[in-house]
C-alpha cells in the first residue's frame, strides 16, 4: 500500500469541484523520477529554492574535488550519493514547499496506486465537505483541526486493522 498526504491551498475556491481539483497528492517515500532526473523533477514541481540549493551543492562538490581524474571519480561517487539521498527526501521536500506556499494538510490516503488512494480519499472527503458546504461553514473544511483518513475501497476503519506490537493500529 502506498500512502499519500493531501494538501489543500488556503485560498477559497468557488465550489467544491474546484477545491477538489486544487488538491495536491504527495506520495510518502522514495521518488523514482527524482532519482532519475532530479533537476527536471524540481523544475516540474516548481521548487525553485530547492533547485538552486541542489545546483549549488553539486557545483560546490565539483569545485572541492578538483579537475584531476581522481577528483572527478570522487565527485561522481559524491554526486551519486547526493542524488540517492535526494530521491529519498524529495517528496518530503515537496510537502515542505507546498506548506511554504500556503497549503495545509487536508488528509491522508492509502491505496495500491494513486488512483485507488484518490478514490478512497474522495469517498470519505466529499461527503464531509458537502455537509459543511450545505450548512454554510465559513471555511468549508468540516471540523477544524481534524484530518480525514481514507481506507481502501470496501474497508472501514477498525475492520481488519493489523496489530503492531502490543497495540492495535489506530
Q: Give the class from helix and strand content and strand pairing.
A: alpha+beta
Overall mean confidence score, pLDDT:
84
Q: Helical percent range?
A: 40-55%
Anisotropy-based shape: elongated
Number of strands: 5
The low-confidence parts are 138-146, 153-158
Biggest sheet, strands in spatial order?
Answer: 2-1-3
Strand content: 5-15%
The topology string of helices and strands comes to EHEHHHHEHEE
Instruction: Give the termini distance in whole angstroms.
Output: 16 Å
Q: What would you report as the Rg, rounded to the nearest angstrom?
A: 20 Å
Q: In DSSP terms, counting alpha (H) and pi (I) runs of 4 or more, how many helices?
A: 6
* Major β-sheet profile: 3 strands, antiparallel
Secondary structure layout:
Blueprint (H helix, E strand, L loop, with lengths): L1 E8 L6 H6 L2 E4 L4 H5 L1 H7 L3 H18 L3 H32 L2 E9 L2 H22 L27 E2 L2 E2 L2
Antiparallel strand pairs: 1-2, 1-3, 4-5
Helix pairs in contact: 4-5
Amino acid at each position: 500500500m502506498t500512502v499519500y498526504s493531501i494538501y489543500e491551498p488556503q485560498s477559497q475556491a468557488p465550489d467544491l469541484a474546484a477545491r477538489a481539483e486544487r488538491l495536491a497528492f504527495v506520495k510518502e517515500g522514495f521518488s523514482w523520477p527524482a532519482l532519475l532526473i532530479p533537476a527536471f523533477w524540481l523544475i516540474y514541481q516548481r521548487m525553485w529554492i530547492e533547485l538552486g540549493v541542489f545546483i549549488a551543492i553539486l557545483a560546490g562538490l565539483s569545485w572541492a574535488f578538483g579537475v584531476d581524474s581522481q577528483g572527478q571519480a570522487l565527485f561522481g561517487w559524491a554526486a551519486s550519493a547526493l542524488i540517492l539521498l535526494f530521491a529519498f527526501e524529495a517528496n518530503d521536500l515537496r510537502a515542505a514547499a507546498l506548506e511554504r506556499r500556503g497549503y495545509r494538510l487536508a488528509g491522508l490516503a492509502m491505496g495500491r496506486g494513486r488512483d485507488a488512494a484518490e478514490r478512497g480519499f474522495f469517498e470519505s472527503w466529499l461527503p464531509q465537505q458537502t455537509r459543511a458546504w450545505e450548512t454554510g461553514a465559513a471555511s468549508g473544511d468540516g471540523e477544524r483541526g481534524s484530518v480525514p483518513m481514507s481506507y481502501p475501497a470496501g474497508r472501514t476503519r477498525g475492520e481488519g486493522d493489523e496489530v503492531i506490537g502490543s497495540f492495535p493500529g489506530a
